[in-house]
């Protein structure tokens, strides 16, 4: 069975990422996006997250959030304390979600969360032209 993935974050973060994922990889099963727009309350978000968990109907779930310590992260953590096979990660972006979606078969929430952290913890890159790269050797994308 696939691990359920719930992406959540401030504003339209979640639906924006879900839209990008659909353009890149098509519609995904066992995948929910829960936004936290201006004016929403913690209680409303908690209810929407619980409803997403119920719709997924998965034994393992990963909550992919935007910012550690933010309301979507905190509400996901609170909910995860009642779900023994769940994990909450922060710093979610399109590459993280793609890897989660494509790597989740035959994984547990714990093993997949470890894969995501290990492979994406140092993935931020700076573009430099070849002439700049000769001066500054580092992790860069070259033209």
Can you walk me through this structure?
There is one protein chain. The chain is of the alpha/beta class and 143 residues long. It has helices at residues 13-25, 42-56, 71-80, 94-103, 109-120, 130-135, and strands spanning 4-10, 31-36, 61-65, 86-89, 126-128, 140-142. The strands form 2 sheets. The protein has a 4-stranded parallel sheet with strand order 2-1-3-4, with helices on both faces. Strand 1 (4-10), helix 1 and strand 2 (31-36) form a beta-alpha-beta unit. The longest helix has 15 residues, at 42-56. The N and C termini lie far apart (42 Å). The mean pLDDT is 91. Keywords: Cytoplasm, Kinase, Phosphotransferase system, Sugar transport, Transferase, Transport. It is found in: Cytoplasm. InterPro entries: Bacterial_PTS_sugar_comp, PTS_EIIA_man-typ, PTS_EIIA_man-typ_sf, PTS_IIA_man. This is PTS system, mannose/fructose/sorbose family, IIA component. Residues 2-140 form the PTS EIIA type-4 domain.
């Amino acid at each position: 069975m696939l691990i359920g993935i719930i992406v959540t974050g401030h504003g339209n973060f979640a639906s924006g990422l879900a839209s990008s994922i659909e353009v890149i990889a098509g519609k995904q099963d066992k995948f929910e996006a829960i936004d936290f727009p201006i004016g929403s309350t913690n209680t409303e978000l908690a209810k929407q997250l619980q409803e997403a968990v119920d719709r997924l109907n998965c034994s393992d779930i990963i909550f992919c959030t935007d910012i550690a310590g933010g309301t979507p992260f905190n509400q996901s953590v609170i909910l995860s304390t009642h779900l023994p096979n769940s994990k909450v990660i922060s710093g979610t972006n399109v590459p993280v979600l793609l890897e989660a979606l494509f790597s989740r078969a035959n994984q547990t929430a714990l093993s997949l969360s470890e894969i995501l952290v290990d492979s994406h913890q140092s993935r931020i890159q700076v573009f430099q032209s070849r002439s700049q790269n000769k001066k500054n050797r580092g992790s860069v994308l070259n033209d």
